[in-house]
Amino acid sequence: MGLQQESLLKKYITIFAIVSSYWTVSIFTVFVNKGLLSGIELDAPMFIACYQTLVTALICYIKQLLNKRWPTKVSFPDTDVWNIQTISSVLPVSFMFTMMIATNNLCLQNVSLAFYYVGRSLTTMFNVVFTFLILNEKTSTRCLVCCAFIIFGFYLGVDQEQLAGSFSVSGTIFGVLASLSLSLFSILTKKVLPKLNSDVWVLSYYNNIYATILFIPLIVFNGELGTILNFEGLWDISFWFPMTIGGLCGFSVGFLTSLQIKYTSALTHNISGTAKACAQTVLATYWYKETKTFLWWTSNIIVLLASAAYARIKQLDMEAKQALPSYQKV
Predict the structure, then answer these.
(1) Could you please report the per-residue DSSP string of 249-308?
(2) What pTM did the predictor assign?
(3) What is the pLDDT of residue 137?
């Protein structure tokens, strides 16, 4: 009995360490990216995103080299980045991954950090729509009710931002596009992962390499090339240090997300992410000394509770589906 209690305590301590690390690193990453996108004189969101995907790709590549040198101590799956079949399978996912990061950065650049979560809250609604259109999977009525509340919370949040005079049309549009991209990215990931032996790290490695390449034309198209070359602090360590920290944080969030799902569940991760967003919103209003109305906070609470309820109902629906007996013809 003593050994079981000790083992259970060790498990709880591990879960607490992982969840708290995920919260800390994830919130810190958002603040770092907000600082990079809005706090420096360089207006180059695509370049910043490109550098961060490059950092993640380099970390994966170094880990792969270490695996070849010390296969018993460092694990990393075999990959073939430039294989034509791999490219044709993964490129659609990588394209959505790139669009997701690009629109997310543009949203974060143009909206306040406090409004950021509400501005990105329509992912759940898009998940329902595209799951039906692409995967032909229907969603329960209870989940649709949750989506209706999320849309209402989003609308109320936008309304309150307008009344406060801090509403950004472009930032909100990019937030909606980021939600749409994330939804499509999740669904395409679900379709592609079986082709990669369901290895999330392999897909992450491919995505970050291909995204780094895809960001190059976006940098040119967004008119950032001249801005980058004319930036006075381009060769200063005070610029590259936070840029690198942002890249390391991006990699760490992905790693901790995988650990959180591994040691808990996908539902716990969703609820943890929702609660983290709540803490992030409160922290942002305190950090930037923003005063919000009662209805503004109400919009956040509606979105948070509806998102958590959706995750819980979705889990119950899946459990009910798995519990149904299967019959075979004889």
Answers:
(1) HHHHHHHHHHHHHHHS-HHHHHHHHHHHHHHHHHHHHHHTT----HHHHHHHHHHHHHHH
(2) 0.84
(3) 81
